[in-house]
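Question (not urgent): is this output format expected?
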Amino acid sequence: MPTRFFVPVMRRSLHLAMLLFGLAILVWSALQLRRPSTDRDWTADNARMPEVAFAGSAVTVKNVRNFDWQTTTGFTPRWEDRSYDLDRLESVWFLVEPFGDFRGPAHTFVSFGFADSLRGTDYVAVSVELRKEVGESYHPVRGLFREYELAYVVGDERDLVRLRSNVRRDSVFLYRVQATPEQGRTLFRAMLERADRLRTAPEFYNTLWSSCTTNIVDHVNAISPSKVPFSYKVLLPAYADELAYDIGLLDTTRTFATLRGGALINPVAMAAHDDPDFSARIRAGLR
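Got this back:
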């Protein structure tokens, strides 16, 4: 290409690159001015944040969510205060809720089982989510730009699990985590401490580095010798169970395909819909 043509093209390309760089700086600067808040017009299911108090091995959690969902928009709200004895924690469970037919997007969360002399085992779930405002909907691209606050929802499985399996009719996979009671206690404490901090020190949700799955990964990496590596399976959390299997956090005595095939709880969850022993029943058929 002759020099008289090459130089103008290079000059225009340089000007365009500088313009795009300048726009990127302006967008980044504008985003840094946004601040997370605890004071917005929250949806009813996000209206309260957990309030946590520890006393030795005892922990009291205020605002445990236990809504009775009839539809995705119709529910009977219930916020409860509950107490747990960390010394009685006996199991940790990992749940995956894929979205739609494309295996990639999903929600993941964790549940903890405590030995209970009356009910056998008492379960409480902790779900890292965005804290929605009235009229707000989620989009992963918007989640990159400080659009949503972060929330740790502490709730009864008859709310957090049944909403997904029975009301939304999404597939839900339930796995027992290969963790010692001490690791389970450490994870539960860490997640509750983070939940309590968010009540007074809000943070933004981020699709890439502060989502449901990435926050669980951060908690696990803080306590487990089996570190969760950086992987597309974290960013596409419908594969998170496969990643957990690969690093030995799930039962590896069977193939992953066999394990996953037996982890789908929807049929038994539908049958146990109103049963007070919902949590026990969804585990009874696991294989």
